[in-house]
Design goal:
This protein has three domains: 140 residues, no CATH class; 66 residues, no CATH class; 94 residues, no CATH class. Helices cover 45% and strands 10% of the residues. β8 and β9 form a beta hairpin. It starts with a helix and ends with a strand. 26% of the residues are buried. Belongs to the Rv1128c/1148c/1588c/1702c/1945/3466 family.
């Protein structure tokens, strides 16, 4: 890059213009999402909220979908801020910060205390347009504190939160907040494992040792067998892998699949199999009893496991409910002659299990992809999911 390029302001003007355009697009999106929410538009596609529709149909993360919905609601109460957002002067992030001030509880508190919302709207808009982002955060926090005067001891559980973000490679990032007592319990439990596992020459950082301790805590809880049963099945880590790959000593990158859909290597699957039960699941007549015939109305654990491995969660278009939220649904109802078999089964979460009994329909044609149809016969379409290899399982 030459020195004349460094002094050229055109590229910076372009950046500023693009930021403003993005702000305007975000404003339009928030407004349209709010309009869709008010008209209950997601119900047309069998979903209960705009947040779930954005996750399933637009592939937004849970956090981003919720942020857009909250922003749309907030802008409805803050016309000055909405106008600045439309003009590209305010970002979506600034709107998200301000949305904390107009939650239903704080709107009620403002009305009870005689606080003029129009004044707050003008103040936060002015700060958002003219001052650094940190100043806006401070102003909004001060306003929220003023609306929450001293009173009875609050319920500590209301301030607890834990968000688990799953990345493309299956790794997780945790974001959370615990009250003083809950945090103390967590720290004591975690510290017991952290201090118990300190071999000579250990060069792990404190953060690494605490992360290992958290995984060990989960291992112990799963192994103890005392966790709540989910849909008739005890919580377990499931891995799907072809038998040949399991027996092959090669690393086998990308040949095994966790229950969540994350792809791992055969080597890692073999590592899990060392301390787990291995189940042979064949999609045919010579393996586990998948086809139970007419004599059995309810799916047994073998059929449920097979459906979980095949479907990976709720098959209704746009839904990403995990397997432990799902029922095993008969595509052709048992009372109408439908068999209790894998071919006649589909995993559906409770909401969508209800939907298919009230006009919606799911089908799995020979191409192996699930399709969802509205009561009027039109199909609900979403971008094609990743192909899931059919294989045997170890879990």
């Amino acid at each position: 890059m030459c020195s004349s390029d460094l002094g050229n302001g055109d590229v910076l003007d372009d950046v500023a213009a693009l930021v403003a355009e993005r702000n305007r697009i975000d404003a339009a999106l928030a407004r349209r999402v709010r309009a869709a929410e008010l008209s209950q538009a997601p119900e047309r596609d069998g979903l209960t909220s705009m947040a779930s529709w954005l996750r399933g149909h637009c592939r937004l993360s849970a956090a981003e979908a919720s942020r857009v919905v909250r922003s749309g609601r907030a802008l409805a109460h803050l016309p000055a801020l909405a106008e600045a957002h439309d003009a590209g002067l305010v970002s979506a992030e600034q709107v998200a910060v301000t949305a904390r001030a107009v939650t239903p509880a704080r709107l009620t508190a403002a009305a009870e205390q005689g606080v003029e919302l129009a004044v707050i709207d003008a103040v936060v808009t002015g700060v958002a347009v003219e001052q650094p982002h940190t100043d806006l955060v401070t102003v909004v926090q001060r306003y929220c504190d003023d609306l929450d005067p001293d009173g009875p001891e609050p319920d500590p559980t209301e301030g607890r939160s834990l968000t688990v973000v799953t990345h493309a490679d299956g790794s997780r990032t945790l974001h959370g907040c615990l009250d003083a007592v809950g945090g103390e319990k967590f720290q004591v439990a975690l510290e017991s494992f952290t201090q118990a596992d300190r071999p000579a020459g250990d060069e792990r950082t404190r953060a690494q040792r605490q992360a290992d301790a958290l995984v060990q805590l989960c291992d112990n809880a799963l192994a103890a067998g005392g966790l709540p049963t989910l849909r008739t099945v005890k919580p377990h880590v499931a891995v799907r892998i072809d038998l040949d790959d399991l027996a092959d000593p090669a690393t086998g990158q990308g040949t095994a699949t966790l229950g969540s859909g994350t792809v791992i290597s055969a080597a890692r699957a073999r590592w899990l199999a060392c301390d787990g039960a291995v189940s042979r699941v064949v999609f045919g007549p010579d393996g586990a009893p998948l086809d139970l015939g007419r004599a059995h109305r309810l799916a047994d654990r073998h059929l449920r496991r097979a459906a979980e491995l095949r479907d990976g969660g709720c098959v209704f278009a746009g839904c990403r409910a995990p397997t432990w939220w799902c029922d095993v649904h008969h595509l052709v109802h048992w009372i109408d002659g439908g068999e209790t078999s894998l071919e006649n089964s589909a995993l559906l979460c409770e909401r969508h299990h209800t939907k298919v009994h009230h006009g919606f329909r799911v089908e799995r044609p020979p191409d192996g992809r699930w399709h969802t149809w509205r009561p009027d016969g039109t199909e609900i379409t979403t971008p094609a999911p990743l192909l899931r290899p059919a294989a045997r399982a170890v879990g």
